[in-house]
Specification:
Layout: H1 10-17, H2 21-35, E1 40-50, H3 79-91, E2 96-101, H4 110-123, E3 128-132, H5 138-147, E4 151-153, H6 160-163, H7 172-183, E5 188-190, E6 193-195, H8 201-212, E7 220-225, H9 242-255, E8 260-263, H10 272-280, E9 285-288, E10 291-292, E11 295-296, H11 300-310, E12 313-314, H12 351-359
Parallel strand pairs: 1-2, 1-9, 1-12, 2-3, 3-4, 4-5, 6-7, 7-8, 8-9
Antiparallel strand pairs: 10-11
The structure holds iron/sulfur cluster.
């Protein structure tokens, strides 16, 4: 296994990203082989347990209540519904279920208690459980850990500079603070970002600086290609080129050698050949299921066919880290604090977000 460097600079990363493509692919493939089995892919299923109606203004997101998209919102799913979906995902080869709720941050109370029960339930199915619930406090992270959470997803989305052009309802430091709260537990960190939001290559390198200088680096990093949804501020962004995606994956692999790199949103726009190049460049995980929260995703059978074609085997759950133990609610050490944390609300305005809000 090669060592992990934590002091990558933007210049280092730009130097890697801009290498001649064959050079970049070769280097990334070597790093990949030194740190992972290149013939194994990890499959996660993303489940939207509470869709739409979100108070935030993320420019890429159709679930933000302020934009006029055709998303059908739903209240929090029941534990039984989640269990049924998890079993279905397991039968189709997923080793991980990632539950997403369209929340700004977690609030203590019945809904969070229900999510904790979902975590316990899925962990008992011997699947890795991940949650993406917005910002969380240390106590909330501890409670999730106790329930048996394997990973917490909290994407940095972009570089700090570009983040301000996409989201105005919370600050970058809030993201980093949530990741730091997760790091105080034994839950692994999943954090990545999105390309194709109008950012330049320097911004992409800036995002990779932010992710790769975390110590420890995230155990998994989703690289999303924007799916421009009508009604969102980013509706007119052109699909990102596959070559940009390949370069981004390869660069991420080199600077984050041990991280599991996940192809996430935007996979329906990628050919099999394009995805194969991404796997060669170091991607070793995908999201499965016909929907990713609210946007389309390749059919599960198509993915299975692709893995067979490429000779990729499915990663078993808990290959990278032992299964956490679940503590039942009655035996919990960490009680609800009924906290009202003060996550920031920056004051800057983003014109295109304001326009999309007013469109109506
Ligand atoms: S990305 Fe998450 S926080 Fe942002 S608007 Fe969508 S659901 Fe809300």
């Amino acid at each position: 296994m090669s060592g992990t460097k934590h002091n990558w600079t933007k210049e280092d990363i730009l130097g890697i990203y801009n290498k001649p493509l064959m050079e970049l692919l070769y280097e990334a493939a070597i790093v990949h082989r030194l740190n992972h089995d290149p013939n194994v892919v990890q499959v996660s299923t993303l489940l939207s347990i509470k869709t739409g109606g979100c108070s935030e203004d993320c420019g890429y997101c159709p679930q933000a209540a302020r934009y006029h998209t055709n998303i059908e919102g739903n209240d929090l799913m029941s534990v039984q519904q989640v269990k049924a979906q998890a079993l279905r995902a397991k039968a189709r080869g997923s080793s991980r279920v990632c539950m997403g709720a369209a929340w700004r941050n977690v609030k203590d109370g019945v809904e969070f208690d229900a999510v904790l029960e979902m975590v316990r339930t899925i962990n008992k199915l011997d699947m890795e459980v991940c949650c993406t619930l917005g910002m969380i406090t240390e106590n909330q992270a501890q409670r999730l850990a106790e329930a048996g959470l394997y990973a917490y997803n909290h994407n940095l989305d972009a570089s700090e500079a570009y983040y301000k052009k996409i989201i105005s309802t919370r600050g970058y430091q809030d993201r980093l603070d949530t990741i730091a709260n997760v790091r105080k537990t034994n839950v692994t960190v999943c954090s990545g970002g999105i390309i194709g939001m109008g950012e330049n290559i320097e911004d992409r390198a800036g995002m990779l600086v932010a992710l790769s200088t975390l110590n420890p680096q995230p155990e998994s990093t989703p690289i999303n290609a924007l799916v421009a949804v009508e009604g969102t501020p980013l509706e007119d962004e052109k699909p990102v080129s596959i070559w940009d995606m390949i370069r981004m994956v390869a660069t991420t692999r080199i600077v984050m050698p041990k991280t599991q790199i996940r192809l996430s949103a935007g996979r329906t726009q990628m050919s099999r050949e394009g995805q194969a190049m991404c796997f060669f460049a170091g991607a070793n995980s995908v999201f499965a299921g016909d929907k990713l929260l609210t946007t389309p995703n390749p059919d599960v059978n198509e993915d299975i066919e692709m893995f067979e074609l490429l000779g990729l085997n499915l990663q078993k759950p808990f290959t990278k880290k032992d299964q956490p133990q679940t503590v039942e609610a009655q035996a919990s050490q960490f009680k609800s604090l009924g906290e009202k944390p003060k996550w920031t609300r920056p004051t800057h305005k983003i014109e295109r977000n304001e326009r999309a809000n007013k469109k109506g």
